[in-house]
Amino acid sequence: MSSIALVGNPNTGKTSLFNTLTSSYEYVGNWAGVTVEKKVGSLKNGAGKLIDLPGIYSLHPLSRDEGVAAQYLIEESPEALINIVDASQLERNLLLTLQLLEYGKPIVLGLNMIDVANARGIQVNPEVLQAQLGITVLPLIARTGKGSSQVLSVLEKPANIPPVSFHLNYGELVEATIASISNQLQQISGLPNLRWVSLQLMEQNPVVLELLKKRMDTSELMLLCDACQTQLQKQKLALTLPQWIRSIRMDYIRSVCAAAIDATKQKPHNLTERLDSILTHRFLGLPLFIVFMYAMFKTTFDWVGGPLSDLLDGFIGGPLSDGANSLLQAIGASGFTHALIVDGIIGGVGGVLVFVPQIFILFLMISFLEDSGYMARVCLLMDSTMERMGLNGKAFIPFIIGFGCNVPAIMAARSIEQPKDRMLTTLLMPLMSCSARLPVYLLFAAVFFPARQATAVLAMYVMGVVFALILCKLFSKHLFKNESSIFIIELPPYRMPQFKTLGRSTWEKGKGFLRKAGTIILAGSVIIWLMSYAGPAGFNVEMDNSFLAKFGGLIAPLLQPLGFGTWQAGSTLVPGFLAKEVVVSTMNIIYHAPDSAGLEGQIASVFTPLSSISFMAFILLYIPCLATVGVIKKETASWKWTFFSMGYSLVLAYAVSLVIFQGGRLLGWS
User: Fold this and answer.
1) Which of 462, 534, 571, 589 is most solvent-facing, going by the fewest CB within 10 Å?
2) What global pTM score does this model have?
3) Using an 8 Å Cβ cutoff, are 587 and 619 in contact?
């Protein structure tokens, strides 16, 4: 089956095109040597597999993860390439295109965002571009799917895509060096286009250089490169060899753009620029972002999400539970089975599922911010604040994603170029309030702050961000001294996200929560129920005499100074290490709550407003869940940093909860 690689700059619509061209896709492990997931889709016409390469500006990587594209091209051999470019930013995009043309494989150029270019008064002539580059050029609007059928038609038989005959002359001196290097590379079997490999070596591509070092002695090759660079310097043509190669390419790109682009009607101020003048304003930008975030939380927890969750809670606590009771009685189920299903499974898992509408709405809102182009502006707004704390604005995107789930958020930190910034972001990510903590906040906010639920929940999110920034400053000052940080980010044009894309993105984020409900939360609920059902005296014992009570009682004295020193509270925290969602399901089982109203009544009798704040702060800050711990180990490749992240979060949680409760008591709060 044919394999076709999809390559392009970030923010060129590559993901939209991938989703349009494929009927289904899956993650098939990671790319070799790095932690970037390998995304492979099946083309709708059955012509083969489409491999989605990470978004890159050049084959010369800024970070080790960006080296995936060069590694793939040199180690594997796709039948063809699809290079997607932004028609409104063609000059910058064509730098990668030239590197792919030199690779020598059949290539199709997807000229995307022609609608954006036209709106800006930029006219790109696909026929002229095709004649200049010598490859098939297809105009696209990947966001709406326009033009994707033509791409599928061309890809139906990759062997019929015209071969590439591109050859850019770099001057007599460099061409002689390319020929000498190519001649020496002939001793290595399995390499792709030798001219391409030679040029990548001369550009000092670390991925290519490392691979060649494994297969041959590269000292003679490096001498050839050094000699060529010395001659360029003597002739005052360029300071470095990579600089000369880039200058030749840019000259060619400008000539192509001059022929293919008509910018005489380009508008001086487009919609994106007008919006940016307000949304990224020095004084207005941050307050507007805070307003947007507050509106997002009100929509999620009050205006839309709350009523939907109430409806689902009514169904689970009413018809579903009553139907299960009737069915179990009709078939003569034993008391044990009846209690397991109704109290353990429906009560435990159902107590978490009632929050699914709010979680999916939150994911929908985050996806909207990402797809609209506004999220990149937030990074720009936050850069000065983040820089003062030891990070750059690019780390803010993983932090926002962390509001959904810490695991993909930590993976998103791979796009950060500097190792120091990537490590700091990974270590601080567990302080972001993920969707798993949300049921706990919603439960306690509904009981103790019914008139200000959104504000109470937002306060927990803000608390996590504040402590992350404070610790970032401490860690960067004492743990990562003398390591620099740079900030490079592209601001894509504002777009109205497509409903289909939003739906798919929301589902991708939210299905993990549903999967947990069917696995970890279900298993945790059953185990917790069994511990509450059994005790030293046997089965069906009083809750206070159960194994769960004995277990929680061991932890309770340590929690007494924090305001929730009961065995019930202690019993919820340890299972919460497996998955924070289990905290609420454990409470449902412990308090025998038939629905949310019943659980809220029990919580109101055990906690006070002050102790509830202390408990929510502890849930926010204490040891991250098992899945997050696992991905921290995977990303840092260090048990030292993994245990450090667990240790500092536990100490921080205890200290903050202690200050909240004891400080509140001193001030006379209850």
Assistant:
1) 462
2) 0.73
3) no
